[in-house]
Design a protein that fits this description.
This protein has about 260 residues and is of the alpha+beta class. The protein contains eight helices and 14 strands. It binds one DNA strand of 18 nucleotides through loops.
Length: about 260
DNA sequence: ATGGCAGGTTATACCTGA
């Protein structure tokens, strides 16, 4: 079973890129973030035509929005509301093979890394705390569960282009990476990418639009993650961060991450 | 150290992203 995650930064604007990616990589399911569209206007047909006929969509106007598009059936969909906020930032499905997939879009947190003066940063920290509580409360750690999404935190030193220069920058501050570690511990998650890419090696999934030459400056961050529960750790066969897509015309600033599971 | 871009919106400037 192949699962992909991608912050698509507007599903309507990037439908051609989505088609190209799906044809090339043939995932069984793709989890999207930042779809930026209400459910009624979601381009369902484009995905249906490619075989992704099972669709769990949770969107809102203009911002955020998540969706899971799948070629394999799922029997259940659910969205949990975090921080008593109706933002569309989570959706989960349970496939007929028993695998439960969670798709998250964690708040970015804006610029100032101080929850006392920046309510968006406070929201981000609260969201991460609730994620940890959500999985602690869920229990049943023996279940086959996959958690993917734009977590908006680059946890390790080599998940950013300069650890020292980004320690005070939102996405890599100690309070954020500390909380993400708590989320990871809440379900004994395995960070799939780092099972294959050594911690000593740089790894990014996002490059800013603001660089004049994203590839030359290569100031990236690894914000997009695939985690698996202990029951699935042995089933992980490969992972790929599809870096070349950052260079496609009209690219998202995030690229997809793909995991292959022997299921 | 800084500035740099992109997407959406009852738009044509402003908010958000990270």
């Amino acid at each position: 079973m192949k699962i992909a995650t991608w912050n698509i930064n507007s599903v309507r604007l990037r439908i051609a890129l989505a088609k190209r990616f799906l044809k090339e990589h043939q995932p069984d399911a793709i989890a999207l973030q930042e779809t930026k569209v209400v459910n009624d206007l979601f381009p369902r047909q484009a995905f249906t035509e490619l075989g992704y006929v099972h669709q769990a969509i949770h969107g809102q106007k203009g911002y955020h929005g998540v969706a899971i598009l799948s070629r394999v059936p799922f029997r259940e969909t659910f969205s949990h509301e975090f921080c008593s906020n109706s933002d569309c930032r989570h959706i989960q499905v349970t496939f007929d093979n028993g695998v439960e997939l969670h798709d998250f879009y964690v708040p970015a947190g804006a610029d100032i890394p101080d929850p006392l003066v920046n309510p968006k940063f406070a929201h981000k920290l609260g969201f991460l705390r609730e994620m940890a509580a959500f999985f602690e409360t869920r229990g049943r750690r023996g279940d086959p569960v996959v958690m993917v999404g734009d977590l908006n935190v680059a946890p390790l030193e080599n998940d950013v282009w300069s650890h020292k220069q980004l320690l005070g920058v939102v996405s890599h501050t100690p309070v954020e990476t500390g909380l993400l570690a708590q989320v990871k511990a809440s379900f004994d998650w395995t960070d799939v990418t780092r099972e294959f890419v050594p911690a000593s090696e740089k790894s990014y999934s996002w490059w800013s639009y603001r660089a004049s030459d994203w590839a030359a400056s290569d100031r990236g961050r690894r914000l997009d993650h695939i985690w698996v529960s202990p029951a699935l750790k042995a089933a992980v066969k490969s992972q790929q961060i599809v870096k070349k897509m950052r260079g496609w015309k009209l690219a998202s600033d995030h690229v997809p991450v793909v995991v292959e599971l022997a299921l």
